[in-house]
Amino acid sequence: MAAAAAAAVGGQPSPQSEPPQPELGRDKAATAAHLKEALSRPDNRAGAEELQALLERVLSAERPLARAEGGGEEAAAATGGGSGGASGGGPGAAEEEALEWCKCLLAGGGGYEEFCAAVRAYDPAALCGLVWTANFVAYRCRTCGISPCMSLCAECFHQGDHTGHDFNMFRSQAGGACDCGDSNVMRESGFCKRHQIKSSSNIPCVPKDLLMMSEFVLPRFIFCLIQYLREGYNEPAVDVPSEKDLHKVLQLLGPQISFLEDLTKMGGAMRSVLTQVLTNQQNYKDLSSGLGENACAKKSHEKYLIALKGSGLAFPEDKLTCGMQDQAAGTSSLAVSGFAGATGTSGQVDSSDEEDQDGSQGVGKRKRVKLSSSVKDQSIMDVLKHKSFLEELLFWTIKYEFPQKMVTFLLNMLPDQDYKIAFTKTFVQHYAFIMKTLKKSHESDTMSNRIVHISVQLFSNEELARQVTEECQLLDIMVTVLLYMMESCLIKSELQDEENSLHVVVNCGEALLKNNTYWPLVSDFINILSHQSVAKKFLEDHGLLVTWMNFVSFFQGMNLNKRELNEHVEFESQTYYAAFAAELEACAQPMWGLLSHCKIRETQEYTRNVVRYCLEALQDWFDAINFVDEPAPNQVTFHLPLHRYYAMFLSKAVKCQELDLDSILPDQEMLMKLMIHPLQIQASLSEIHSNMWVRNGLQIKGQAMTYVQSHFCNSMIDPDIYLLQVCASRLDPDYFISSVFERFKVVDLLTMASQHQNTILDSEHERSMLEGALTFLVILLSLRLHLGMTDDEILRAEMVAQLCMNDRTHSSLLDLIPENPNPKSGIIPGSYSFESVLSAVADFKAPVFEPGGSMQQGMYTPKAEVWDREFDPVMVILRTVYRRDVQSAMDRYTAFLKQSGKFPGNPWPPYKKRTPLHPSYKGLMRLLHCKTLHIVLFTLLYKILMDHQNLSEHVLCMVLYLIELGLENSPEEEPDEEEPVGGQERCHDSWFPGSNLVSNMRHFINYVRVRVPETAPEVKREPPASTSSDSFASTQNSGTAQVFSLVAERRKKFQEIINRNSGEANQVVRPKTSNKWSAPGSTPQLTTAILEIKESILSLLIKLHHKLSGKQNSYYPPWLDDLEILIQPEIPKYCHGDGMTAVERILLKAALQSRLNKRIIEEICKKVTPPVPPKKTSSAEKKTLDKEERRQKARERQQKLLAEFASRQKSFMETAMDVDSPETDIAMEIVTPEQQVSEAVYDCVICGQSGPSSEERPTGLVVLLQASSVLGQCRNSTEPKKLPTTEEEQIYPWDTCAAVHDVRLSLLQRFFKDSSCLQAVSIGWEGGVYVQTCGHTLHIDCHKSYMESLRNDQVLQGFSVEKGEFTCPLCRQFANSVLPCYPGNNVENSLWQCHSNKSMQELIKEVEELQEQLGIFPSETNLSKEMESVMKDIKSTTQRKYTDYSKTPGSPDNDFLFMYSVARTNLELELIHRGGNLCSGGASTAGKRSCLNQLFHVLAMHMRLYSIDSAYNPWKKLTQLMQDINSQLCNEEQPEVPVLYRDVSSLLLIQILTMPQPLHKEHFTCIVKVLFTLLYTQALAALSVKCSEEERLAWKDLGTLKKNTCNAEKSWEVLLSLVINELSKGKLYLEGETEELGMVNPIAWSPDNIERYLQQFCLPFLRITSLLQHHLFGGDLPSCQEEEEFTVLASCLGLLPSFSQTAHPFTSAACLDWSVPAFDIIPQWCFEVTSFSERHAEQVKVLLIQESKWDLPHLLQLPENYNTIFQYYHRKTCSVCTKVPKDPAVCLVCGTFVCLKGLCCKQQSYCECVLHSQNCGAGTGIFLLINASVIIIIRGHRFCLWGSVYLDAHGEEDRDLRRGKPLYICKERYKVLEQQWVSHTFDHINKRWGPHYNGL
Asked: What are phi and psi of 860, to 5 degrees?
């Protein structure tokens, strides 16, 4: 209170209204209550004044404090002495105080919380309106949406019913708001449960007094906020952004804005109060006019005016003083509202040209035109008058560049309808200001997103958009603002006439375009055009259309490319990205929006308007660039939006509106101009692909690709080609054809002469340019996209083309098929037609897995009948971005024909029947029936037949295609429509009599005059060729065709057309601008020669057939044999085939069309054609022949080498590729198969030599050592562990194998001697070292030099050579060490063939002696050094914490334990790879890839260096009776571990590895037998604990009875009773008898059960032992059924003396072979336990070894639907840093939730995922990235993206959830992942690894 009171003294303007002082002394609540009561009286003036005074005081006390650090002047304003002191309390104190006051006052003395609850009760929650910011996860349902921008928050989406709908989840880019409950934007059926109820009826009326205080307090509060904003804003100094200050102010205002935001969340009642406050003009006027005597208010008002001025805005009354000039830098003061047909001269030139200071470096300065409409635009651009708080708030929101909190507050209010309208109008009023601020902003990206966040909420609603359009001139404003925006970056166009051009275009290098700054405005414009009512207004308004065309013309001809002719361009500009994006977004998308409203006849008028203004704009453009008839050479622009507008509206008019095409087409001259630029683009495409533009760099290729790319093609190349088709259908065909060849620069090539000179094209480019020209003609004549195909046919054709190139996934098809780019067009990707067409043309191939593990997606592949009937090469060529795709489509087509047996050879592209032409475009087919084309076709056929240079199969293919098109589309009868003879004689009349292809085909041409270079073989001297070709018209003798010049022909036609037009229009004939082309110096000397030809097109075709077939007279007219052919021509045999088939098909069609042709074909075939003369081989050809031979030889050599390599590779593949099918693996042993005692021979894969491994030059196996915790993940329950997806489910790691072993070891260490403990268990369940090999060997010295070379190799490798990593030189498998091979034979065959007959006792003695021998340290040989170094590698593979278990760090016991545990780990893992048992038998799964034998040698060599003190050698305890047990136990403070507590498998490994290698088989068997007796005793002990007391007694008695039978030692009853007897001497059975019973399963222990239990108990040991025996001594493992596994393994190990199936059933006890009588040794073993039980009774039972029932290791089970995981985890907080991670991930092994890449959880420079991978998987981690649905694998210091195990309904991954479709688990993939984890093959199968630098 004190602060407020102190501050209240100062800054109080009117003392008379000051309330008595003591009142402040009361607490706030009382004051509030008092005021509320005062205000409730009927006459509340006094109360109101009192409240005003209080507010004035409380709220202005804030100001000096907030700015306390901001300088002296504000502080001085507060004269109160206390305020200086208070400001020490930090800037926040007073604000908080003020907020507290406000809350109290609003609540009127009650509690604020209760007040909130009370207000909420009156909320008619019809709309959700939840506002979110960027990155929020929301949903969009297209089935329910009316507007395509519709979005729902997750809660509303899940509460609604959207089953079967077309919805997706998306991450919000700019922020948005939930539309649930808004029927303008979505259908009511999609509302969620909360917003379905129309609730207005049952919500009671709000009591007046509840919100009364709010109405008084809030205006002051908001005004206070505005004053803050005014004060905090300082106009930034020139170019120095004051963003820091702005952020500071905003931070201070955080609590206030949040307070307002909380108010909006109280619901409808409070929102309507706020709306009223914000929109009330009177309140605003009273408070903010700045007219009172309050100094503060005055100052604040001045600041406001300064800010307005600084923004280039003014109050209307200030306008006069400003004198129409604008204070802004860089924004124009006058709009160019469009030229309305005026060129740059009409209209008044505006004198005030001093705006634009920043753009005036002479770049494209042009006088702006001041039109009569400028007053309106003036008001749009420059005037702002604020009449309410809302308006000024928005003003400041914009000024401060849309702070997120303000945006959220403004949007939170939108559910209030009145507010929505007021706010929309305010937003529109500020639109120009928004644009100016956006342009200046340094953070335009963020700002753009915030703007769109607001505008999309306002403009998506059609009703609202219509209202604002009518009342606020929305369209005028938008178009003007866009125009203004672009005007700031115009430059002079350099297209065509560089000097005199008057055209200006946008400069694509400017930030405005480069950064897409215009995007928010354009997107708003597109959004409002999607509403029919708004679009109609636009299309009806001629002024707007003019302005808009003017805007579009800024983009016409932008980003001009000039071909570099000399050297490569230095700097490749990347502006083309900006240019293509700008045309698509700013021109094409609005165009598609408008087109979507011109679908029916009634809208004809709109189309006429657009076409009219479009043509006017085009005419202006041609004038501005000074265009006459020739385009400037070596220039191309891909941007002709005016042409495309014109084309698309034409197409729509004919297709949907039944308009007469001719009524909207211009005159011929205009058509000629219109076709030039689009044609130029087509020719340039061909030039770019012919590498004629290489000096312009890669970017020009990029442009050519973008132009045809799927997102652009239907706004770019399609309209261009359509426009050319329209022009072609209306212009003279000869003119059009000659223009095409001239544009493609191949005119000179089209001569009958064998040599020619091309002045404008290098010969290496001729062929591809000719191919380009012909291909273009084929596309032009066969494409029907806009000429009569229905939408569904188009969709089908597009889909077929894409599928023919490659199999496609569903999403890539959606992406590749050009949709109507305007999102509101109603064609929805994935709409019904899409799916139905897809199922009609394609088959779905489900995702498959290759053994290599590469992930396939679900693909669609074309059905057979599609290849058969619908494959359309023309469409494929049109739609390919890369030329290789055309080849790919042809290859697939070839494969289909081979497979289906339709055609064996190399087929040509098939000819496809076309959709019939729309009648309006019939004229297009005249191109096929014009003499010019026929002459070209004839010439090319002749040249191909004569083998002239620079022609290709592709040329022939296209020529035939054109002929066939002509035959298919021939006029009905053969007309004689010749020009009257009096007309001007043309040179091409001398070639062909008529213009119909059918008759011209049979016309024979005898002689042709040609112009040839003087050097040519055909030369007869003639005058030079500078004369025009007309001079030959006089010398016309019958049968000699004239020299034919396409260029001259085109000139003549053009002149005629111009004259015809100008005759009508009385214009001056333009001069021909052809001087550019015929500069006399450049033309080489040509002369004329006459060639004898004597061919017709038909005869040429028949000869071509002979040439193609390589046989004489190969063509025989088929109808001579079978007249049917002529009646029924559609013969399937002609559909697919090569060139010969095509020729046959054409001849058949020609014969069908005319009887004359048929007869002539027959005649030609009757004449026996002379044999083709043998070619003379010139020297050049000889060279090529030599080359060929040399190549052939080289090829043969290569084949040989390859074959050799392939056989090697095959042998490798057989073993290396297949991970889990042992049966298919041919077990390729490293050994040579002979069984004699020969040394093993190894091949070194580096030097290629073979030989044994020796001490001096050891050979080693390529191995990969990796730490593994897979074993530790085994669990002893079979029900799977699930990934938690709710708070209740948790995963506890207590029951994992690793945890159990850990607990056991630490228990033992508590009670027993450390060194003994470390031999009673194995470690390595976690962080054990697994060794695997690819089976290839190399000399160790070779390996060292190989590593050296890798070290020096600078190429980026996926592995780190420093860490010793490399890839196997042969199979490229990843490896990191070499395991030396022990010299000597590989498998000790010799040693165990001879069965010795030594007794058990002798063997036991021998074993003991062998163990006593000390391991002598081997002499320093290379081999022993290598063995040491590999041991070091093995040790360093795993972390220290996984190797150190002893209490005294670094004790040798540690190493000893570690070494035999490595062996154990590898055996156990192999067992797991076999499925946990040995039933399948066979060789080792790994076949040749097992390296255990070598590993044992290395381990044994090291283990023998540690001698076990003989007193403690467990062997003695197992095989001898101790004399003085008691004394031994007493003297030690910590006894040794009792034998019954020791792990038998560990003992086995210790025994074997401490004996000298190689081991004898008999010793091995002896050890196994002895250990089996111990194991059996442990089993009996464990069983005895499980029995109940009664059962124990029963068994004890039964055993005693049988004790004296003959085989007592081999009967489990006897032994069990013995064990029970001995153990009951201790305290073993007494403890916890009762609860033990509860746990035991109530099954009675029948003899069968006991037998089964004992076998199960012993099996793990038998399995490990059998595997060990298999690796040490070779020999296959027998396969068996599961139930007989025990017996089979026992006999295999020699425990079962040749077990024969006798009458009495088998018992496990039969395998026992006691070395010391059981009755003596068992008591001794039991005594150790009982004496331990004396001291620690409670631990006795726990430590008994239990039956191990470990299940195989599995990853966590994942839920069916990915959404379950996503919804739970993507908002879950991390348990370490308690934040919601930006990139959450979850471990699939243990379920831990981690922050990927999160700096928050970093420890010692390791990020959390890497850390977890070390703790959980000893360096291997498998994480599911929640936000991406992808799995990432971390292996040591590398990581890779594995792929996803969740696929959508089409079998596709959705990485990063970009598509947001529902995803479902793919069980097969998850199995593959688990398989790779268990088999440790991540490194081999996944190829793309990279270092993670501990940053994941």
From this structure: -110, 135
Strand order, beta sheet including 152-153: 152-153, 137-141, 167-171
CB contact burial 511-544 (16+ within 10 A = b; e otherwise): ebbbebbbbbbbbbbbbbbbbeebbebbbebeeb
User: 209-227: string of b/e by CB count within 10 Å (b at 16+)?
Assistant: ebbbbbbbbbbbbbbbbbb
Alpha-carbon radius of gyration of the chain:
46
pLDDT value at 1238 more than 80: no
Phi-psi region of 477 (alpha: psi -120 to 50; beta: other; left: phi over 0): alpha
Q: Which of 1760, 1758, 1757, 1761 is nearest to 1861 (CA)?
A: 1761
pLDDT tens digits, one per residue of 919-966: 999 999 999 999 999 999 999 999 999 888 878 899 999 999 999 999
DSSP element (H, E) containing 1193: helix 1179-1216
Q: In three state form, how does the secondary structure of 1586-1646 look?
A: HCCHHHHHHHHHHHHHHCCCCCHHHCHHHHHHHHHHHHCCCCCCCCCHHHHHHHCCCCCCC
User: H or E element: which one contains 889?
Assistant: helix 883-899
Q: How far apart are CA 507 and CA 513, in angstroms?
A: 8
Helix 243-264 vs helix 92-107: crossing angle, to nearest 10:
20
The phi and psi torsions of 876 (rounded to 5 degrees) equal: -65, -45
What do you get for the CA distance between the two ends of the chain, in Å? 52
Q: What is the pLDDT of residues 217-246, one digit of tens each?
A: 888 888 888 888 888 877 665 444 456 677
Distance CA 663, CA 611 (A): 11
Write out the two tokens for 112: 């604020």
**Residue 255: pLDDT band with limits 50, 70, 90:** confident
Residue pointed to by tokens 């283990």: 1503
Pairing of strands 1005-1013, 1040-1041: parallel
Q: How far is CA 1794 from CA 930, 1291, 1776, 1797, 1800, in A?
A: 74, 15, 9, 9, 11
The structure tokens listed for 241 are 């952004």
3-state secondary structure of 608: helix
Q: Are 1305 and 1312 in contact (CB under 8 A)?
A: no
Give which of 42, 55, 18, 118 is closest to 283, Cα–Cα. Answer: 55
Reported confidence tier of residue 1414, pLDDT bands at 50, 70, 90: low
CA distances for 577 relative to 350, 507, 592, 644, angstroms: 35, 12, 21, 19
The predicted-structure confidence for 674-728, as pLDDT tens digits, reads as follows 999 999 999 999 999 999 999 999 999 999 999 999 999 999 999 999 999 999 9
Q: For residue 973, how many other CB atoms are within 10 A of its CB?
A: 8
What is the rounded CA–CA span in Å between residue 1894 and residue 1838?
9
- Check the CA dihedral 1756-1760-1763-1764 and report its sign: negative
| Alpha-carbon gap, residue 1098 to 1100, rounded angstroms | 5
Give the whole-angstrom CA distance, residue 355 versus residue 1680. 95
Q: What are the C-alpha distances in Å from 1868 to residues 831, 850, 855, 857?
A: 30, 11, 11, 12
- Output the DSSP codes for 1501-1521: HHHTTSPPPGGG-HHHHHHS-
Cα separations (Å) of 307 from 252, 330, 438?
Answer: 20, 17, 16
- pLDDT reported for residue 1067: 36
Q: Which DSSP symbol is given to 1825?
A: E
1491 residue type, one letter: C
CB 965, CB 928: distance < 8 Å = yes
Angle at 884 between CA 883 and CA 886, to 5 degrees: 75
Beta pairing class for 131-132 and 859-862:
unpaired
DSSP letters of 1643-1701? ----HHHHHHHHHHHHHHHHHHHHHHHHHHH--PBPP--GGGHHHHHHHHTT-SSS---
Give the pair of three-digit tokens for residue 1285.
Answer: 């997806």
CA 698 to chain centre: 24
